[in-house]
Amino acid sequence: MNVIMLGLPGAGKGTQAKIIVEHLRIPHISTGDLFRKAAQDHTPLGLTAKVYMDKGELVPDEITIGLATDRLAEQDCAAGFLLDGFPRSLNQAQALRSELAASGRTIDHVVYVQVDERLLFERLTGRRVCCDCGAAYHIAYRPTAAEGRCDVCGGDVVQRDDDRPETVAERLRINGELTEQLAKYYAEADVLRVVDGSGDIADVTEHVLNLFTAS
């Protein structure tokens, strides 16, 4: 089974992806992980991607497509895969379709984890992280016992630049436009499956798995 996870930042698609691949027994392909590994391996594509990532900018399509299609050509993807974070634009979606068609493959399901943008804004701007050990918190859902101090190591707990209100608002705006274009593209291909991502993680997972069996 070939699956794409679609959703805005904070919707929980990455969390769902990690759970779903355990059920389906297919590789989880995250473009973020691909970028980081390629950069660590000092590949030309990886080093170029790192320049954009370090500036908080989207990695250009040709780099993203190259890394993703190289990964999909590996043997463990022959029986299926789950893509998380790719495609992120119509150009990438069309390139993916062509690449898969060349090897006689198609996308079976595109799971759109849909969450109201007001809730996403709250989720993202409320996130906090420990400077020392990296432990994650949330001011509403998982606050620290002592304000500004990590429960694990006692380090400073701060808000990342990516989670500041003005940055989050812009990320949601840009990603919202791209995601809606992709949703329309895959709806026209009759592979889009929409699930409400505002509930508990277990409930969302159950809904996603039911979509697979019902389709």
From TrEMBL:
AMP binds at residues 31, 36, 57-59, 85-88, 92, 160, 171. CDD domains: ADK. Zn(2+) binds at residues 130, 133, 150, 153. Its EC number is 2.7.4.3. It catalyses: AMP + ATP = 2 ADP. ATP binds at residues 10-15, 127, 199. GO terms for cellular component: cytoplasm. Pathway: Purine metabolism; AMP biosynthesis via salvage pathway; AMP from ADP: step 1/1. It holds the Pfam family ADK. Residues 30-59 are annotated as: NMP. It is an enzyme of class 2 (transferase). InterPro entries: Adenyl_kin_sub, Adenylat/UMP-CMP_kin, Adenylat_kinase_CS, Adenylate_kinase_lid-dom. It is found in: Cytoplasm. Belongs to the adenylate kinase family. Catalyzes the reversible transfer of the terminal phosphate group between ATP and AMP. Plays an important role in cellular energy homeostasis and in adenine nucleotide metabolism. Consists of three domains, a large central CORE domain and two small peripheral domains, NMPbind and LID, which undergo movements during catalysis. The LID domain closes over the site of phosphoryl transfer upon ATP binding. Assembling and dissambling the active center during each catalytic cycle provides an effective means to prevent ATP hydrolysis. Some bacteria have evolved a zinc-coordinating structure that stabilizes the LID domain. This is Adenylate kinase.
